[in-house]
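Today's session is about reading a structure prediction critically. Students often jump straight to the picture, but the first step is always the sequence itself: look for stretches that repeat, for charged clusters, for runs of hydrophobic residues. Only then move on to the predicted structure, which in these notes is written as discrete structure tokens rather than atom positions. Here is the chain we will use throughout the hour.
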Amino acid sequence: MAVPQITPLAFGTSALGGMPDTYGHDVTETQARETLEAIFESGVNHLDTSNNYGAGRSEQRVGDAIRARGGLPEGFVLATKLDRDMETGRFDADRVRRSIEESLTRLGLDRVQILHFHDPEHARDLGEIRDSAIPELFKLKDEGLCDATGIAMGRTDILAPLVQDFPFDIVLNHNRYTLLNRASEPVFEAAHAKGMTIFNAAPYAGGVLAKGASYGRITYQEVSDSAQLDPVRKIESLCAEHGVAPGALALQFSLGAPLIASTVIGVSKAERVTQTLEWANTEIPDALWDAVAAVPVDHADPEANRVYKPG
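Below is the predicted structure for this chain, in token form.
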């Protein structure tokens, strides 16, 4: 399988497209450019975007930053994603072609290293995806438009059979392998057994493990019952006892997992890039890991009741 050499840490750019319904805040073009410049200078070589992030703004801003530098830095691995028609939900072979054409135009590139098939759980017809769209993804690889193919999505009940039935190079799942939740463990293990490379995204559970319980959102959803935040508060308390930032613990939990090749961290400010690198190198005592291991972990879908808004 042709997965490029990547750093264990990757940066995601969904927030850089401006998605206030998801993140609770917007991001200006200037802020996005400064963040992308910090990423390119960080030593991390893997950047993740998608056709539908911010209705295309993420890819456009990534493309603008690449053009401003005179091209993608040498050795840099760019991943983007094929997305459904956001108005009709259509996700067939024709839509796959249109999606990659839109992406390459925004990015100003003639190919990408990694191309993921994205969020089929939100498309209109899973049969259409299996029979038409996913086979077209592999044709794009055969044509040289990418080096590696991936499946990037949330719901593991839909992901698991796709992993069994199709030869993806990469499996990317989000919010389901964190200090709070392990819903993706079985599908990660199944994918690994088939030789697929595992990417884990959103190890902060949508930001709450980085921003704290006061953020009031878990997996992009406003918390209606304060008791849902009790595990976060417990982790914060344990981290305070040991002088460790909860975000550092959450990040290193993913970075240290044996099955995970790369952990994708969404950032929306240049200073978050610096902070992420600091957290990745924070020394964490064994006693803290032992204490956190006793915090209850959920194995259910953390987005089962989420009202999905793509903005």
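Discussion point for the tutorial: The chain has twelve helices and ten strands.
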